[in-house]
Amino acid sequence: MFLSSWVHYPKTLRNLCTMVKLVGVFWLTASLLVRLTNAADQPPNIILIMADDSAVDNYSCYGSDYFKSPRLDKLAESGAKFNYCYSEPVCTSSRVKIMTGRDNIRNYVIFGCLDKEEITFGEVLKEAGYATAVAGKWQLHGEPNGSVPSDHGFDTFCLWNFPGGGAERYWNPSLLQNGRLLDTKETDYGPDIIVDFLIDFIEDNKDGPFFAYYPMILVHNPFLETPDSKPMTAADGTGKHAIDLKNYRDMIAYADKNVGRLVDTLDKLGIRDNTIVIFTADNGTNRSLTYPFHGEQRVGEKALATERGSHVPLIVNAPGIVPAGIESDDMIDFSDLLPTLAEIAGAKLPDVELDGRSFWPQCQGEKGNPRDWIFQYYYPKFTEAAKPHGQGVRNLEIIWAQNQHYKLYGDGSYYAVEDHQETSRIKKGRGTETAEHTRKLLQKAIDSMPKTSPKLAPKYGSKGIKK
To answer: Are residues 175 and 209 in the same domain?
Structure first.
């Protein structure tokens, strides 16, 4: 009936309707092309997640048979996993290094302080047009010239350990959101509030590009139950250490769950393919914990200059941008994160002396420019850490260089990396040909760097130095 009637309409009217249809199709096609072009031209969103106090062996994707991290396992399988990523041994050192792309020997002041004169990845990405947020743990505002997020390019924040806040980070937490102390209850769990804040930020900026820096509150002590924790069983053991270890295991699982919540948000918003998710940790496991690893009992080495004090996970995932199944043995230093983020964003690097180099090519399955060594400078709050190799100011400055196999301290002590406890020093001239060649390489690395931080201010925070 419709076709029969249609043929009797005047030809001009039929042609007009056809033109309207064609214009509509053209508009829809053009609109789609514009959206696709904009998506292609727009740099990807970035979420950088850094857990607090968990070494590389606390995750099942790195071989743990005790800790379970299924969401991170999936990100590692479907993206890039780096086997030799190194933070610093303690939080302030790592946070200053990862945020500035500079080794601590250039800019470390004292525990709890990021010099506000430094330029961070927040500023770099903000200048490149990104909406920026930081949420989680801050602890960088101390004397003599500490920082708050507005000093470093962050548009919005929700943070613990921030001026005006209190001590609680988990239950009934003391969190400041954009300068306002949140009113929380005994039943409120800090990590959930932080992730809710980040989800709101992502939703508000879904058209991108955005940069979310998530220095987690988890999994630092105190080791408390999470909202998902179940009661202790006989298999968990008894006593304080058993309770702490069980809760720490639950905290690892909850941190993994929170990563999953962010990924699920990206999926829901349809921006998963254009968002790069990066996961790492700021230092090794708490020294009070002893945990199983394939029949071995490992003791946490946080704040120590030994291997497990700074060997941390690094996972990079973005479907369609980062190929699945990449596993790299290239060394990654925390100073490498800023130049990598800058390359991803097409951002201009700051006009300062950087120590990092981008590993973005490796994330895409290319050779890139891998490191022959990393350099570490560490001024510990925990003074026991400096007893074996401390030099310089108060005999607390620890310097070393290493590759995947060998490690040389500034005082000449030389070890195989697999000697985690550093019990068997390799005497000069007594190592293999490879070991002696590497010793020379690492010595050149040490010689190429300054001898102390020009900003080191040990008088600040001296009352808090732990004997």
So the answer is: yes
